[in-house]
Amino acid sequence: xxxxxxxxLFKIFGHKSRERALPLVRSGETKQEILKKTGCTVGIxxxxxxxxxxxxxxxxxxxxxxKSTVIRCLNRLIxxxxxxVLVDGKDITHLSKSELRQVRxxxxxxxxxxxGLLPHRTVMDNVAYGLEVQNIPKPExxxxxxEAIVTVxxxxxxxxxxxxxxxxxxQRVGLARALAxxxxxxxxxxxxxxxxxxxxxxxxxxxxxxxxRLHKTIIFITHDLDEALKLGCRIAIMKDGRIVQVGTPEEIxxxxxxxxxxxxxxxxxxxxxxxxDSIIKKTETVYDSAGPHQTIRKxxxxxxxxxxxxxxxxxxxxxxxxxxxxxAAKKVKPEEDDQDNKHIRNIIRTELSSAAPDxxxxxxxxxxxxxxxxxxxxxxxxHFLGIVTRPSILAGLAGD
Length: 400
What we know:
The protein is α/β, with parallel strands linked by helices. The protein has 18 helices and 15 strands. The strands form 4 sheets. A 6-stranded mixed sheet has the order 6-7-8-3-9-10, sandwiched between helices. α8 (138-151) crosses α9 and α15 (292-302) runs antiparallel to α16 (322-329). The longest helix is centred in the middle third of the chain and has 18 residues, at 197-214. It is elongated. The model has no long low-confidence stretch (mean pLDDT 89).
């Protein structure tokens, strides 16, 4: 379900930008050419993307790429030169000031890089500030603010002055203030970039944990590729005001759209981004209701000494070996294979643990090196999806 849609968004800074520069942008002239001819600066050049409900959508690029301009156009802190910004299907670029205030209060909240806190107020009053300007009674706004404070892990600090807190804690206050309004969309502009590296990683982890509970729609701006790959369900990469690629972290890593993106991801640790799902291999299985003679025939046909076992609903049950199946076959006549008490269920081995399809490759290294068996990949519902082998892990890391 689409929560936000951006269509052909332009932002050009300068005198009479719409009349003088916009036609040149539409005709394909470069940012540098337009600056030289008109004195106008192209901030966003025909950006289009969609954001799904409950996803973290990351917009990333180097300084000057236009990413922060985009996020400020989404809530009209910066007025777009042209294009549409649809929130729940309604174009906010044509809203009146009073209508826009309601969108900012109910639909969107923003977390800034530099916190934007009021130093003369306590944590509680900072978090409750957005509710205060909506004239919500003090008991109600303090109740909602306290819920947000607890959510971000600041319980016990509600009466502290914000300047007494560390940078990481101040950013948590900013996040709690945004959450207190219970917005549908959370805008985060370089929210962690001003923090020390260790604190930054900690807040990234906390944001992912928070998202697993709250399922907010988050648009996150960053210049850090590692941060984008870690947080993003999907990523939009920008250059000179244009979006050059939108995709999942794996899609961007394994199929970069151009040389610019390829250079961007060249030194990324693929083992921490690629998942089992990207290198999964299909393999033959046998039903747990099969008899030992039937299973032996299938093993001979495939030239395999082991087979993974599933039930009639394709749920993963374990695996069987040729030795175990041969031993069982000696006790059963071929014509008895289809009898209920003559199946292979009693010889299924279950000691081999499975992995989820979203398990990153770095978490599979040790298991793959210690076990002669492939790793079975099983969905959250228990369905057998396929296997991951040592060669497939190496191929994935090599980009093959």
